[in-house]
Specification:
Number of strands: 9
Largest sheet: 9 strands, mixed
Structural class: alpha/beta
CATH topology of the largest domain: Rossmann fold
Radius of gyration: 22 Å
Strand order of the largest sheet: 1-2-9-8-3-4-6-5-7
Order of helices and strands: HEEHEHEHEHEHHHHHHEHEHEH
Strand content: 5-15%
Shape: globular
Mean pLDDT: 85
CATH class of the largest domain: Alpha Beta
Number of domains: 2
Length: about 375
């Protein structure tokens, strides 16, 4: 099924709750868990989402004060983890924003369903005009270090383990299963792929099946052709549906400490709004063009705006109608003639400090 067909299927499943729909974006209004449960299995390439933090107890963020005990919040989040695991493709990645106080417990809870691969610290090196707490708060009365950072937990399918049966990645297990069904030996497949190793005759194929690394697009094409030519296996998954992307270079933020500035305050700003440059950094690195990006706590639609600017499809689910209206306005403002025209200017941390045009729409 193509990305376009997958997106159409998603829109059909959400048809009763859609508040905005275009050829590349859809916003559903309502309870996010119910809408998530309606999505097709294996239909999402990337989840980027910012649920209530619970520990911050902000009355202006829906759901932030709903749970009396931490365990209740964690149980609620696990319901989402189960569904995210179901809808995410084998090549999918989950980015979960959370407060520093809850990060460790969320990471442990989610490890039942996913393999944790990063624990990113977002330091928010804001300048004057972004946050006024520095000059107002009574620092002498603090009982802990002020949490001027947030966490972004990153997960993929799979687990960590000791025994071979448990340490394979889903991609490695898939390649192993398909080769065994095909009847080809590891050595034969290595010859077809031309991926010989320096140590063992299985070459790179042994590493691919063990999940230690992944083939290039060209190598996988040769493997796919060889396995399918036996007539013993069904058509193999496309490269984009099997292997998780992570496209970073020395020219962008590539460590697990990020210094993107927060969104400068403006009229009708969402209280938990995330900066466009950080969202675009995530989406560009962890999805392929045309992929479907999901945000189950869409807020004012920032993730969807970033996805459209990068030529991705997006699905947002939001409970509060005021933010659905904001998302609809921002998405409409981004369409100015061509399919993926970008009338708003991309700015990067420590380079440009002016707010985005979309951030000023409601001034």
């Amino acid at each position: 099924m193509s990305r376009e067909q997958e997106f159409e299927s998603i829109c059909q499943r959400l048809s009763g709750s859609i508040a905005y729909e275009s050829r590349d974006s859809v916003v559903a209004h309502g309870d996010s868990l119910e809408a998530l449960q309606a999505l097709p299995t294996d239909s999402i390439s990337l989840v980027v989402t910012d649920p209530p933090y619970h520990s911050t107890k902000k009355a202006n963020i829906a759901g932030d004060t709903d749970f009396q005990e931490d365990e209740h919040f964690l149980e609620w989040m696990e319901e989402y983890a189960k569904e995210w695991k179901r809808v995410l493709k084998m090549s999918g990645t989950l980015y979960l924003f959370c407060a520093s106080e809850m990060a460790a417990r969320l990471e442990v809870a989610f490890s039942k369903y996913f393999k944790p691969i990063n624990h990113i610290v977002w330091t928010k090196p804001n300048e004057p005009g972004y946050d006024g707490w520095k000059g107002k708060m009574r620092k002498e009365s603090m009982r802990k270090w002020y949490p001027h950072s947030e966490r972004i937990l990153v997960f993929e399918h799979g687990t960590y383990g000791t025994y071979e049966a448990y340490r394979r990645s889903p991609q490695g297990q898939y390649l192993l299963d398909m080769r065994k069904v095909s009847g080809l030996s590891m050595i034969q497949l290595t010859e077809f792929a031309g991926a010989y190793g320096n140590v063992n005759r299985g070459g790179a194929v042994a590493n691919w099946e063990a999940g230690r690394n992944t083939p290039s697009r060209e190598q996988y094409a040769k493997v796919k052709d060889a396995l399918e030519a036996t007539g013993n296996v069904p058509p193999l998954l496309d490269y984009e549906d099997l292997f998780r992307p992570l496209d970073v270079t020395k020219d962008v933020e590539f460590t697990d400490v990020w210094d993107f500035m927060s969104v400068r305050p403006f009229k009708d700003k969402h209280p938990a709004e995330k900066p466009q440059d950080m969202l675009m950094h995530i989406i560009a690195a962890s999805s392929y063009p045309g992929d479907v990006v999901l945000d189950t706590f869409a807020g004012s639609g920032s993730t969807l705006v970033a996805a459209r600017r990068l030529g991705r499809r997006s699905v947002g689910i939001e409970l509060e109608m005021r933010w659905v209206d904001r998302a609809r306005a921002d998405l409409d403002a981004l369409v100015v003639g061509s399919e993926y025209e970008q009338p708003v200017r991309v700015h990067h941390a420590r380079r440009t400090h002016e707010p985005l045009l979309l951030d000023r729409l409601f001034d």
